[in-house]
């Protein structure tokens, strides 16, 4: 990572919003060890309280949480603090959801499980995009068709509460075909 960008990130406040307390606290501790002022919350209401009370420079927001989704947290963060940089975390993101997140102001969409180094890299990349002196030859690596299909299947399956038969029907697949696809490992890209 570029040392100038690393220096520009150090000392900033970061809000971690995730209903998984173990992941949330691990990320918050890791950010604190790297010189960030870290806040951690497990719900929309807790996040809104921090957003209204404190200055937030960076935010890591889980997409799926009980109650209001991470997109609602993102929307309200951007309304209150439009200069904040936000990254959305998701275990089963879809292209459509990623587009919605970017439209609401997210600078990146990171797959779980993610570590602090990946998140700092995402924030650094966002800063580079706004830095007129940064190298503009960054290579965009779009997800493969297989990865997009896998993410879509995971999202539909989640929306169906894990019911393979119902998900297969919605996807227009035979149940057994969907089961075979689910037995495969997710594509890397």
Shape: elongated
Extended strand count: 5
- Percent of residues in helices comes to 40-55%
CATH architecture of the largest domain: 3-Layer(aba) Sandwich
- The top level CATH class name of the largest domain: Alpha Beta
Number of helices: 9
Amount of beta strand: 5-15%
The overall average pLDDT, rounded, is: 83
Largest sheet: 5 strands, parallel
The CATH homologous superfamily of the largest domain is named: Response regulator
CATH topology of the largest domain: Rossmann fold
Query: Any low-confidence stretches, pLDDT <50, length ≥5?
Result: 132-137
Please trace the helix and strand order, writing H or E for each element. Answer: HEHEHEHEHEHHHH
Number of domains: 2
Query: Using only CA atoms, what is the Rg?
Result: 18 Å
Strand order of the main beta sheet, please? Answer: 2-1-3-4-5
- The secondary structure category is alpha/beta
What distance lies between the first and last C-alpha atoms, to the nearest angstrom? 22 Å
What do you see in this structure?
A five-stranded parallel sheet has the order 2-1-3-4-5, sandwiched between helices. It has helices at residues 3-9, 21-33, 44-53, 70-80, 95-104, 116-130, 145-159, 164-171, 175-183; strands at 13-17, 37-41, 58-62, 85-90, 106-111. The radius of gyration is 18 Å and the shape is elongated. With 189 residues, it is an alpha/beta fold. It contains nine helices and five strands; from the N terminus they run αβαβαβαβαβαααα. It has two domains: 3-130, Response regulator (Rossmann fold, 3-Layer(aba) Sandwich), CATH 3.40.50.2300; 145-183, Homeodomain-like (Arc Repressor Mutant, subunit A, Orthogonal Bundle), CATH 1.10.10.
């Amino acid at each position: 990572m570029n040392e100038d960008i690393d220096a520009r990130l150090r000392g900033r406040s970061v809000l971690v919003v995730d209903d998984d307390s173990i992941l949330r606290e691990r990320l918050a501790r890791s950010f604190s060890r790297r010189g960030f002022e870290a806040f951690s919350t497990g719900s929309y209401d807790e996040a809104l309280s921090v957003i209204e009370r404190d200055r937030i420079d960076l935010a890591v927001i889980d997409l799926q949480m009980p109650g209001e989704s991470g997109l609602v947290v993102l929307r309200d963060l951007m309304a209150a603090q439009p200069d904040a940089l936000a990254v959305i975390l998701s275990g089963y993101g879809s292209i459509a959801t990623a587009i919605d997140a970017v439209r609401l102001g997210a600078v990146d969409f990171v797959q779980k499980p993610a570590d602090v180094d990946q998140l700092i890299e995402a924030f650094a990349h966002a800063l580079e995009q706004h830095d007129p002196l940064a190298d503009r030859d960054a290579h965009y690596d779009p997800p493969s068709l297989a990865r997009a299909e896998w993410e879509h299947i995971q999202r539909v399956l989640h929306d169906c509460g894990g019911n393979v038969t119902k998900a297969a029907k919605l996807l227009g697949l035979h149940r057994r075909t969907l089961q075979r696809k689910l037995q495969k490992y997710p594509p890397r890209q």
